[in-house]
Specification:
- The structure holds 2 protein chains of 2 kinds.
- Chain A is an alpha+beta fold.
- Chain A is built from 9 helices and 6 strands, in the order αβααββααβααββαα.
- Chain A has 2 domains: 76 residues, Arc Repressor Mutant, subunit A (Orthogonal Bundle), CATH 1.10.10.10; 79 residues, Arc Repressor Mutant, subunit A, CATH 1.10.10.10.
- In chain A, the strands form 2 sheets. Chain A has a 3-stranded antiparallel sheet with strand order 1-3-2. A 3-stranded antiparallel sheet of chain A has the order 4-6-5.
- Chain B is mainly alpha-helical.
- Chain B has 2 domains: 107 residues, no CATH class; 76 residues, Arc Repressor Mutant, subunit A, CATH 1.10.10.580.
- Chain B has a 3-stranded antiparallel sheet. Chain B has a two-stranded antiparallel ribbon with strand order 1-2.
- Classes of the chains: A alpha+beta, B mainly alpha.
- At the A-B interface, α4, α5 and α9 of A face α6 of B.
């Protein structure tokens, strides 16, 4: 069992993108996703301990290893490249600030590239969209709040407004 | 086959006749028209291609350069450079460094070369590449707020640019009250249509200039749209007849 846990940790560490349970099942050589999920949960628990600097996060059914939120500010300078491009992050920030917001409004501000960025954010599980009339209404998800360590969307707005003053 | 200087060194020595190279073939014109490969090909004619004798090649090239000088031609610098390189290689072979040949001729090299021979295997270095992960960090809340600030600044600048773009084209229109105009027109019609059923549009005009025609015609159309009057035209481009609506007329008569 320990060797499977080690293999899982190695795969998640090395992968440039989040891995699904099926991907991990192929790597571990397991046919049953349930057994893979058990190992994932075990690794998650192990990484929750205080002396571990990374955590296993899930977004949209995929798993990846990330530095813990409480530590990221102290070590961010070591890896200047972010896992979300600045353009996509800008679109995400607008959606988070205005949530829920019509997609047409975001596109008006961000231009046509906004469509691809919104699609990427949906795939990452940070944004959902709901059809209303002829446009979509975009909202942020719980995965977004967990990723940034926020409780509610209002907290982000208040946080931003406080910094702006 | 000739046995070479070192143990186990064999060199193929093809006894080829010394080929005469015509002067015309190595003229300046020939050189300028063709590329280096052809020049060297011509110079090395008759030499063993698998084992080009540098000394012979250098001698030929030196003679060629000297012949060019005899013609009093301007010798390009690169020709002299090539000659010097070849002579240097000749000197190295004759007096200094030895060319190291492989232990086996190239055509006999095969995959079994390293079989069961640990001494030969040590020629192959063990190379292992470290597996590295491209460091990409998670986005922080500060990054998100920073991008939001930038987005808002850009949006503010964009709106400001758009508002500044509105230019004054120099057309200043007088403001007028349409309701007052319509009421005025209606008053005129009531006065004129007392005792008459209909009136033609031309009878309403006074100055009969373009401005008056357009203004009164538009007002007539508005009144008809409001269902206060009724207009008719019996033939195309004929007289426009105006009358009050029945209900209004009845009220007037009362």
């Amino acid at each position: 069992m320990n060797d499977k846990l080690a293999l899982l940790e190695a795969a998640l560490f090395l992968s440039a993108k989040a891995l699904s349970v099926n991907n991990l099942a192929d790597i571990l050589g397991f046919g049953s996703p349930g057994y893979v999920q058990k190992i994932i949960d075990e690794l998650k628990e192990e990484l929750k301990k205080d002396y571990r600097g990374i955590e296993l996060i899930e977004s949209n059914g995929k798993y990846e290893l990330k530095v813990k939120s409480s530590l990221i500010n102290k070590v961010a300078y070591l890896a200047p490249d972010q896992d979300i491009s600045s353009g996509t992050l800008r679109t995400l920030s607008l959606i988070a600030y205005e949530t829920p917001v019509q997609q047409s409004k975001i596109i008006e501000i961000r231009g046509n590239r906004g469509y691809y960025q919104i699609q990427e954010l949906k795939e990452r599980g940070f944004v959902t969209s709901e059809r209303k009339g002829r446009t979509n209404v975009l909202s942020i998800t719980k995965s977004f709040l967990d990723y940034f360590g926020l409780e509610t969307p209002e907290e982000f707005r208040m946080n931003f407004s406080a910094d702006s003053q | 086959m000739k046995r070479g200087a070192g143990k186990g060194i064999y060199m193929l020595d093809l006894e080829l006749p010394e080929t005469e190279i015509a002067k015309e073939e190595l003229s300046m014109e020939f050189i300028l028209k063709n590329n280096w490969n052809l020049v060297l090909d011509t110079l090395s004619r008759g030499l063993d291609p698998w084992n080009v004798d540098i000394t012979k090649l250098a001698s030929r090239y030196k003679k060629y350069i000297q012949s060019m000088e005899d013609y009093n031609l301007k010798v390009p610098a690169r020709f002299i450079l090539v000659c010097s390189i070849l002579l240097r290689m000749k000197a190295d072979i004759l007096f200094g460094k030895r060319v190291i040949h492989s232990e086996l001729p190239i055509e006999e090299f095969n995959e079994d070369f390293f079989d069961n021979d640990p001494q030969k295997e040590q020629y192959i270095p063990n190379i292992s590449f470290p597996v590295r992960r491209a460091p990409v960090r998670r986005v922080t809340l500060e990054d998100l707020k920073s991008e939001l600030a930038k987005a808002m600044n850009i949006e503010y600048s964009r709106k400001k640019r758009w508002s500044e773009r509105k230019t004054d084209f120099g057309i200043h229109l007088k403001k007028s009250n349409i309701e007052e105009k319509l009421n005025g027109m209606m008053e005129i019609l009531r006065n004129v249509l007392v005792g008459h059923k209909t009136i033609s549009f031309e009878e309403l005009l006074q100055d009969k200039n373009k401005k008056e025609v357009v203004e009164k015609f538009v007002n007539i159309l508005r009144l008809e749209n409001k269902d206060q009057i009724k207009c008719s035209q019996k033939e195309f481009l004929g007289k426009i007849l105006i009358k009050l609506k029945k209900e209004m007329q009845a009220r007037e008569n009362e």
